[in-house]
Amino acid sequence: MNAQGCLVFELKNDIRELAALSRHVEALGRRAGIPARTLLEVNLALDELFTNIITYGFPQGGEHRIRFHLRADPRRLTIVIEDEGVPFDPVACAPVEAPCPLEERRVGGLGLHLVRNLMDEMSYRRTQGKNVLTLRKRIERQEPPACEAG
Q1: What single string gives the DSSP state of each residue in 1-19?
Q2: Which of 71, 129, 135, 150 has a Cα-to-Cα distance from 119 of 20 to 30 A?
Q3: How far apart, in whole angstroms, are the C-alpha atoms of residue 88 and residue 82?
Q4: What does the pLDDT average to over 39-54?
Q5: Mean pLDDT score, 18-32
C-alpha cells in the first residue's frame, strides 16, 4: 500500500483466500480512515464477487490469480477486479425479478442484486482476455458531534 491509499494484490482462486481479501480491505480502510459501515458493505460485495469468480470463472480447473486494485481518496473508494476467467459481464445481467416467496424464486441473481445495492457504480469491460470489473463506493464520513455549552 502506498501513501495515497492505494493497494494492489492478487489472490488464488481458492475460497480460503476470502480471509485474506477481508484483511486487505480492512488494512486499506484503517489507513484511509474509511468508516466501518462502508468497509462492511465493500467486504460483502467483494465476498460475493470473489466467490462467483471462483465458482463459475474457471470451469477447466487449475490455479488462477485474481488481481485487485483498491484506491481510496477522501470521497470515494474505487476497486478494480481482474481475472482471466470465462467472460462474464455482471452489469449486463437482468435485475432480480419482483419479490416473491423464497420457494418460488429461481436460483441465482441475488448476489449481484446485493452488489448493485451496496456499491454506487459498477462497470465492466473485457480486455486482453480478462474480465475487468470496476466498482465505486462513496465514502460517507460522519461529522463529529457538535459540542454543547454547559
Answers
A1: --TTSEEEEEEES-GGGHH
A2: 129
A3: 11
A4: 97
A5: 96
Residue in the block written with cell 435485475: 95
At a CB cut-off of 8 Å and minimum separation 6, what does 138 contact? 75, 76, 120
Q: What sign has the CA pseudo-torsion 83, 84, 86, 92?
A: positive
C-alpha distances in Å from residue 98, one per residue of 7, 85, 122: 38, 30, 21
- How far apart are the C-alpha atoms of 64 and 129, rounded to whole Å? 13
- Do 70 and 24 contact (CB within 8 A), yes or no? yes
pTM exceeds 0.70 = yes
- Domains recognised in the chain with CATH numbers: 6-138 (3.30.565.10)
